[in-house]
Each structure stands twice: as C-alpha cells, then as structure tokens.
Amino acid sequence: LLGQILDQWFESEPLKATLATDAVIGAMASPHTPGSGYVLLHHVMGELEGQRGAWGYVAGGMGALSQAIACAAAARGAHIFTEKAVCHVLLGKDGRAQGVVLQDGTEVRSKLVLSNASPQITFLELTPQEKLPKDFVQRIQQVDTRSPVTKINVAVDRLPSFLAAPNAHDGRPLPHHQCSIHLNCEGTHLLHQAFTEATHGHPSSRPMIELCIPSALDPGLAPQGCHVVSLFTQYTPSVLAGGRPWDEQARNAYADTVFDCIEAYAPGFKASVIGRDILTPPDLERIFGLPGGNIFHGGMSLDQLYFARPAPSYSGYRSPIPGLYLCGSGAHPGGGVMGAAGRNAAQVALKDFRQL
C-alpha cells in the first residue's frame, strides 16, 4: 500500500498527500488501494534531460510533440493520412495483416501494421473477431478501463494569485507558477474521501486538482497578459449514480465545484476565467478513443502490467494476428508521454520485418 510506504519515509501529511497524487493519477484507486505504490514508481522512474524523476512541458503545447514525431517520420519517407479514420485491419488469405481499410473504402497496403490505438479498439473493433482466440478476446474485454479523470482546459486573463504565495506587482510568473500545483491535498484522507464518493457514482465534492500553467514557461500559448491553465482533476465516475448522463448541466456543476475549490486558494480566479473546456471520462473516450476515458488505455494495476499487458503471452507487442503489433499505452510498460512502448514495438516489428 502506498500509504504504508509514505508513512515509513515521511512525517508531513501535506507532503505525503502531494506525493500520493502521483500514485493515483489517472487511476480509479485511493492511496489505500493495494498496488497504488507502483503507479507512483511509474511516474518517477524516468528522467528528463538527465534529471531523474523530472517532468517537463512541451514547447508549443502537446500538439508540438505530435508534429515532431510526424516530421521525423516524414523525413524517413512516411506518408501521413490525417482525418482518415481506420475502419478495419486488412487480412490476407494466410491470416497475416496486410494493411488497413479507411472509412471511405481506401485500402492502405503494408507488410506490417502497428496500432497505437487502445487494445479494445485494436482487437475488438478493428480486427475480425473470428480470427482471434476466444480467450484473448475475453481477456481484452475484461481489462479494467475505469477512469476517474475529468480534464478542464481554462483560459484566464491574468495569472492566478495564491494566498500562500501572492503574485509579484509586475504580474510576472513566479517559480511556483512554473510547476505542478496540487490542491485539496492537505492529507491523504482527502484523496481517499474523494475516491470513495466516486465509487458510489458521485463526482468528488472536494476533488483532487493538479493545476499547471504551461504559458508561464511558454508565453506563445496565450496572448500577452493572459494564460492557459490545465486542470487534471479526479475523481469523477464514468457513469453517474442512477445512470444519469454527463450532460451539460452535470459537466458545469462539477466544473463549478472545481473552480470554487481553486477560488478558496486563489481568490479572484473565477473572475479571471474567459473560457473553459470540460472533458469528462465519456468525453475523453468519444474524442480521443480512450477506453472508459482511461489515459493509460487500461488501469496500471499489478494484474494488468508487465507480462499481463495487454494479455498474458502477448506482452511482447506481437498479437495473435501475424504482422499486427500493439505499440500504444495498452502495451508494456503502460501509459505516460515517454515513447517506451512505441520504441520497443518498433524494434520487435523491425526484427520480424527483416525475416520476411
């Protein structure tokens, strides 16, 4: 249990709770859930520019990362189709993957197919079910994809000023504006309480909030004097109590709760808001293809990691379909903007390609 690990090393409850957020981020779990300690390890095991456990902002926004990957691929001769949804994986008479079919009927032929869509979309929607082992299909259907995350993107006309560290007179960003700001994390019991509410179908009344202001480091993201604020919040259930839908009223009610919490730490925040975009778990699934809204394509629990990700005997990026590989967050080692799954899958696919 993460709680036991933190109690062993630290005395400060706010520090323990702040560290605990990385153990439950994106997970429908509390600091008291068995296995939660691994999720914390997963988020600090890497490095950024030589600094272990460090994270960073992508200059130009997250879309700039996609553009960098696209440019690198194009430089190597790749052809990129955008706004072209894949309908299904094309199989030959020998059962091998031979390309993909787009929704407009276009066939894109290839010797290998790598999918960074979720295992659920790859194997339950894009692949003929009769070509897959029944136990494999059952395993993919049983993957826990519950997600507690509601992402809120906010545009503000001035920098938030926190009671604990008021803004400078010139309005310039201070060091804490350039970091992750954790709110409602004074104690691990608050995280557990927020989790418990969501398990009963209710959005947290005092949600865990991770607030980032990327424009504090990258001014080009917003007009002068304005900023963009990214709110990673939980816990929100995918399905509300009583089967109620996540309609506009429910979305706005939860966002208002989040903003009320921020207002308590940074008076004037609500008055500074000039726009907001609310993405609940169903929205994240519909827009980005994340199963259940899960940012990791499936829970990072011990029963869904390592040799069991996405299914036992298929953790090596190959699938039951020869020539079809899984290279996204649903493959080993799981989620995070690190590219490890893609790099590993590419090496396996390249090895197989050389043997064709």
From TrEMBL:
Keywords: FAD, Flavoprotein. Coiled coil: none annotated. Belongs to the carotenoid/retinoid oxidoreductase family. PANTHER family: PHYTOENE DEHYDROGENASE (PTHR10668), PYRIDINE NUCLEOTIDE-DISULFIDE OXIDOREDUCTASE DOMAIN-CONTAINING PROTEIN 2 (PTHR10668:SF103). It comes from the Eukaryota. Residues 32-164 form the Amine oxidase domain. The gene is Pyroxd2. Interacts with COX5B; this interaction may contribute to localize PYROXD2 to the inner face of the inner mitochondrial membrane. It is found in: Mitochondrion matrix. Probable oxidoreductase that may play a role as regulator of mitochondrial function. This is Pyridine nucleotide-disulfide oxidoreductase domain-containing protein 2. One of its GO terms (cellular component) is mitochondrial matrix. The keyword Flavoprotein applies. GO terms for molecular function: oxidoreductase activity. Its main location: mitochondrion.
